[in-house]
Amino acid sequence: MTSALIATGVGKRYRRLWALRDCNIDIPDGRVVALVGPNGAGKTTLLHLAAGLLSPTVGTMRVLGRTPGRDVGLLADIGFVAQDVPLYRSFSVGDMLEFGRRTNSRWDHDLASTRIERARIDLDQRVGSLSGGQRAQVGLTLALAKRPRLLLLDEPLASLDPLARREFLQSLMGEVAEGELTVVLSSHLITDLERVCDHLIVLSASRTQVAGDIDGLLASHRIVVGPRREGAEVRGVGSVVQESHTDRQSTLLVRTDGPILDPAWAEQEIGLEELVLAYLGHPDATALPQPKLATAEAEVSP
Amino acid sequence: MIEFRLSPRSGVATYLQLVHQVRHAVRLGILHPGDQLPTVKEVVGSLAINPNTVLKAYRELERDGLVEGRPGVGTFVRDSVHGPPPGNHAALRRSLERWLRNAFEAGLDAEDARALFETSLQNSREEGVA
Amino acid sequence: MIWLTWRQHRLQLLYGAVVLVILTVFLLSTGFGISAAFRSSGLAQCLSVPGRDCGAANDLFMGGGARYSGLWFTIPLFLIVPAMVGVFWGAPLVAREVEQGTHRLAWTQGVGRIRWAGTKVAALAAAALVGTASLAWILSWWSRPFVAASDNRFSPGVFDLRGIVPIAYALFALATGVAAGTLIRRTVPAMAATLGFYAAVRLGVELWLRPHLASPSTVSYPFFGTNPRSGLGDWVLSTKTLDGAGHLLGNGKVLDLNVLGSRCPGLPLPTESLPNKDALQACIRQLGLHVQSTYQPGSRYWTFQGIESAIFIALAVALVGLSLWWIRNRIA
Lengths: 302, 130, 332
Fold this sequence. Notes:
The complex is a heterotrimer of chains A (302), B (130) and C (332). Chain B is mostly helical. Chain B contains 5 helices and 2 strands; from the N terminus they run H-H-H-E-E-H-H. Chain B folds into 2 domains: 14-77, Arc Repressor Mutant, subunit A, CATH 1.10.10.10; 86-129. Chain B has a two-stranded antiparallel sheet with strand order 1-2. By secondary structure, chain C is an alpha+beta fold. Chain C has 2 domains: 2-215 and 301-329, no CATH class; 217-296, no CATH class. Helix content of chain C is 62%, strand content 8%.
């Protein structure tokens, strides 16, 4: 399987402040990725690096096998919707579509007009007078009508009411079902994204903390409850993310590296939100794939 | 055609909810052999879930032999659906109801009865595996 | 992309066109009257004969009370037109996008940010070129009688409005605006910076560089003679009064009686009485008093226009280059 996005040791520094550090990510093609983390964790920086708006201070960024920023041709394959959906306020919705048509050599005008029609937005309406949900739909339409292979959405749900969120995700997932499209959505809330995403990246304090397929992450994390543990190893437990103790009992959120066979320990499955919160609460814990493959690829490529 | 619904608080994985709903519909005779399941795009467009989740559910149903995918056309309920014939079904239900009456007479409440049922189900499954 | 430039900047372009129309109407409605007065005052005919003294006709055309003499002073108003191109077209080009975050939309489209910026700058430059060229052309016609009357095409406020330099100024102002907006990223401060930088460079070139664009020529003539180069439209840079040995006796065509008194013993000191005219002339002849002018010949007018245009266009190209580099490497 090829990778839509590979970051190898990527860091971005503004003057003396690192907005992103030691970022190693490998996003396989066709995934819908939740990029989660508290505000200021570097989500926007990572997306801007991928869209070629920024260049990394250190490390290499490969998007669809090319280098963003330096390779202008790559822009045709990337749909990017920045935070707060910047659009030209004085334009009509029709003008915005014309903008897309004029600034992209590959532009699916039918797709664009159909989507706008389905969202019940008037082409003559001024962008400045659109609701948050309509803005988001227009922004998404502009990004999708380029027929991109990679779609980057920065906090697309932040300003939407629950109904608009649902409609936005419905239409987005409809496009994902249509064809080969990798999507990265950033959000500081995982609940919004739990059902639409199949890959998770958790950024915290400008570092990658968790990265992997959600199925795999959920399968390898368990809550285990057993007798109070005094530092003794439990077989099957790879690492402990979070622990709490009473005088008799220990409750651990663990990343397993095999079946937990000890009958003294009862295991329980864990939800995605719980998993994310546990990691965010314990910034020293990480769940990252071995970066060997990505490094090797980056060294070979020119 | 059926429409899927997701229960937000069930704690059951989304793809399993879809699997259960198809099985249920087939058992209750809502879906007949030859009926088409909603396309991935339709499901995704109405539930706002990841298309891979739907694909995973349909693959699981295919593995069970309940449905078959026809490339480029869609996913259809198989002609020969395995499962207890309806007559047998009704008889089993009657005996379960009899059992429940006995349980209530013995002083169990609904919660106790469910726990007992779940435990027995678990045991018989484990025996079946062993 | 041209469509986008038009769609985004059509209001600014419209305002520019309105200003151009208003100025054109003003120039046309007064221009014919000025030409008529130029002819009826006899100045046009007088000036066509080299070496004639046209003082009386000049007074009739340009003197106090003459109908159109006041319009001469509207000329400097036109100096701000190129600056406005920079302030209102150039400065917002990048700054407004960055301020509103729309650069993140524009720069992630397929055309890429360099083509985006390049096309927009080029399209606005073309509009500025057409606008200022037509204004300069009308102004050249309109101001011809004034320029002929003052026999000076080089001085500030005249040279700058005619010929081809206004076009170069406008392109320079536009590039200044784009660069200021790119570096400062905020529209209003960028507008102020554009105005300041434009004015500083223009003044610098005008006051210090323009006189030295070519090495000036010198002409000498006797104190009581006439300048053999009068009427040729020269740009006189300095006039000095010298004695036969070349010592400076005064700036301009002047007689300093104190100096003369000390050099010609027969001449009475001015405190006592006015010197006798014959004695004065004798003294002047004895000292070999003459006038020396350094000047740029009028024939260099188009050379100067060309050189100054080239300077400003080169600056404009450099500023656009800087902006594009900055857009590509420094902003996100």
